Amino acid sequence: MKRHYILLAAIAIFSMVGACSNGGGAPAATTTATTTAAGTSRVRLYSVAQKGYIMSDKVIKSEAEWRRLLTPEQYHVTREQGTERAYTGITWNNHEKGIYRCICCGNDLYSSDTKYESGTGWPSFWEPVAPENVTLRPDNGLFTKRTEVVCSRCGAHLGHVFDDGPKPTGLRYCMNSAAMQFVKTP
Ligand SMILES: [Zn+2]
């Protein structure tokens, strides 16, 4: 009889462990974060058009919504941390005067005033329009330690920042064309 209970307990523990490790629980965690943060969290951003800081709602959408709004390449780069092939994007060689905005939410990211020739085949800048408009986070891969740059308003992956850029900051914000929309300014 006693042995029977021990066996039942063992089966119960096994099934609990199985449930936790099954799928990692990632989709459930993502859904929870989306619903609790949606609509309520605000972020302070610099607006180029308004020449000053504004308070803006964060933009939070489901994977399905982003897929509907973006092209497959834009989706892959911004929502799946993809990287477009060098020299293939539409703005790596753009020299027009204007503002580069987030393709997902329209947040102002970079000015053409800080764009420079990095020779990498990706649009490169030495500074964002304001430090608040982009968020930096560690991106530690198996062999590389890099700093990821994401949009502060919608979390879109934009590219990476490196410390081999030109003066005055010495930084190279290496972006994907597919993550940005270029808007000409007079
Ligand atoms: Zn964005």
How would you characterize the overall build of this protein?
β3 (98-102) and β4 (108-111) form a beta hairpin. Residues 6-39 have low confidence and may be disordered. This protein has helices spanning 2-21, 26-37, 63-69, 72-79; strands spanning 42-47, 52-57, 98-102, 108-111, 115-116, 124-125, 134-140, 145-151, 157-162, 172-175, 180-184. It is 25% helix and 29% strand. The N and C termini lie far apart (85 Å). The strands form three sheets. It has a six-stranded antiparallel sheet with strand order 5-6-10-9-8-7. The protein has a three-stranded antiparallel sheet with strand order 4-3-11, with no helix packed on it. A two-stranded antiparallel ribbon has the order 1-2. With 186 residues, it is α+β, with helices and mostly antiparallel strands. The chain has a single domain (37-184), classed as Metal Binding Protein, Guanine Nucleotide Exchange Factor, Chain A (Beta Complex). The chain is built from four helices and eleven strands; from the N terminus they run ααββααβββββββββ. It is globular and about 40 Å long. It binds zinc ion. Zinc ion (ZN) is lined by residues 102, 104-105, 107, 151, 153-154, 156. Residues 102, 104-105, 107, 151, 153-154, 156 line the site of zinc ion (ZN).
